[in-house]
Specification:
By secondary structure, the chain is α/β, with parallel strands linked by helices. Helix content is about 35%, strand content about 25%. The chain folds into two domains: about 5-235, Rossmann fold (3-Layer(aba) Sandwich); about 255-490, P-loop containing nucleotide triphosphate hydrolases (Rossmann fold), CATH 3.40.50.
Length: about 500
């Protein structure tokens, strides 16, 4: 089914998010959409899926004018979406989430749970999630598993047009390749797919065409076979971007020494981080990487082991203790663990460093605005005002603000869990440079990333986690994507 966008414009108070956008998506085509954070990609997706209405412009499906006033109308027209921000209800089961509003019923009008679980099981098998039960509560799932359930939820609609907004941001390479197989299958069945991703390699692997937005304006559409990464980056950001050079800031002094740390999902973890060192944690979904990070930050309890910082044993049973000890944590789950959604941009940035905005013992809004303004410029945060509520910003801009919060705090050890999740290519390399800069200042970085090229680019040392244990240690010089995956899978 073809979809045509004619002169789509969307204005918000003080900003034009989309300015006269016209794009055509053909039947059975994978059409990628890329651009920096704030370029208008998610706004366009929200218009197509009925969450927003255009200020002006029209949408046509198969040549016929299409009015989409709400998400239910979009679904009735065969349009399904996997949003960047998760929409699952943690207190409901996997089956109840996937088939919310469309549960099968028996002749008395009650939910037919036997049929519901059977349909859910079929979807889970299609996504190779055979280790999950349909009646499992979503709250028990990892971020990556939740993302796969979001995809299952969209597939349950049997869409003719599928919108995917950063679908691989929280999943590993294995799940990404599985998703790509499903996309190719849907494409062969005539399903049209709009694919948003900041990962250039994915776009060139799966898309037929790519359209670029910049500051809400259309920059052009290219056949994948007729373009390259450098051209797309120039269209997106208006400048050339270079990867940061490999660091040489590692010192001999041990900054963090973890001895025998154990807890729910991990056991007997030994690791060290030296001054100026970036240590990468690699592993598959459920390997225990995030659980290790949360235990170091006091977000979940450890059942054994010791943490030493600067040669002194520290007690980390609560987050406040970790922060006081000099440990910071940028979480994988930005929306629920990284931001205060109803607070402003500036309030979020200073939330871990309230002492920085005191003036003679009193809170200084002037200092807060000055600090927030500095990070707005440094990280290129797109916002109409520093007093804008953070939950009204794009996911990528929210991530930059979480990063700014910890840059301001400047902890001795910074744990970053999927730090470039949902961040555009320009901001990604800025974050890479910032991590390198912090390492050069003698800070220690623990980096968790599902992007193997990211781990290889940034890490001085890579630790591979499998089944809650560190199974291999690799130096940057000898690590490759292949041997990391072999260790992670146990080959």
């Amino acid at each position: 089914m073809s979809l045509e966008l004619h002169h789509i414009t969307r204005r918000f108070p003080g900003v034009t998010a989309l300015d006269d956008i016209s794009i055509c998506i053909r039947e059975g085509e994978v059409h990628a959409l890329c651009g920096e954070n704030g370029a208008g990609k998610s706004t366009l997706i929200n218009i197509i899926s009925g969450n927003l209405q255009p200020t002006s412009g029209e949408i046509h499906m198969n040549g016929t004018l299409l009015l989409i006033e709400n998400p239910l109308q979009a679904l009735s027209r065969g349009i399904a979406v996997v949003h960047q921000e998760k929409s699952l209800v943690d207190t409901l089961s996997i089956a109840e989430n996937i088939f919310a509003g469309q549960q099968p019923t028996n002749k008395w009008g009650f939910i037919d749970f036997k049929k519901l679980y059977r349909q859910t099981k079929a979807l889970l098998e299609r996504l190779q999630l055979t280790n999950l039960s349909p009646d499992t509560c979503v709250a028990r799932l990892s971020s990556a598993q939740k993302q796969m359930i979001e995809i299952a939820k969209a597939l349950s609609k049997n869409p003719s047009i599928l919108l995917l907004d950063e679908p691989t941001a929280s999943i590993t390479e294995k799940e990404t390749q599985l998703l790509f197989g499903i996309i190719r299958q849907l494409k062969s069945q005539g399903v049209s797919i709009i694919y948003i991703s900041h990962r250039m390699a994915e776009i060139f692997s799966i898309a037929d065409k790519v359209s670029v937005l910049k500051d809400g304006k259309y920059q052009g559409t290219k056949e994948i076979s007729d373009t390259n990464i450098d051209e797309l980056i120039r269209l997106m950001v208006g400048r050339n971007i270079a990867a940061p050079a490999a660091g040489d800031a590692v010192q001999n002094e041990i900054l963090l020494n973890v001895k025998g740390l154990s807890g729910n999902g991990f056991k007997n973890i030994h690791l060290t981080i030296r001054k100026g060192e970036i240590v990468g944690l690699a592993g598959l979904i459920g390997s225990g990487r995030t659980e290790i990070a949360k235990a170091l930050f006091g977000a979940i309890p450890a059942t054994g082991g010791e943490i030493w910082l600067h040669g002194k044993k520290v007690i980390v049973k609560k987050i406040a203790q970790a922060i006081r000890a000099g440990i910071g944590y940028l979480p994988e789950e930005r929306k629920t663990e990284g931001i205060f959604g109803m607070m402003t941009v500036e309030e979020n940035i200073i939330s871990a460093s309230l002492h920085s905005v005191r003036n003679k013992g009193w809170f200084s809004r002037k200092k807060m605005s000055a600090i927030a303004g500095h990070y707005k410029e440094e990280l290129r945060i797109t916002t109409t005002s520093l007093r804008q509520k953070i939950n009204t910003l794009s996911g990528g801009n929210q991530q930059k603000i979480v990063f700014a919060k910890w840059l301001l705090r400047s902890p001795e050890i910074l744990i970053v869990d999927e730090p470039t999740h949902g961040v555009d290519i320009g901001a990604k390399f800025e974050i890479y440079k910032l991590l390198r800069q912090k390492a050069a200042e003698g800070k220690g970085i623990l980096l968790i990333s599902s992007e193997l090229p990211e781990l290889l680019l940034l890490s001085d040392t890579i630790l591979v986690v499998r089944s809650g244990a560190i199974v291999e240690k690799m130096a940057r010089a000898t690590a490759t994507e292949e041997n990391i995956m072999q260790a992670a899978c146990g080959f």
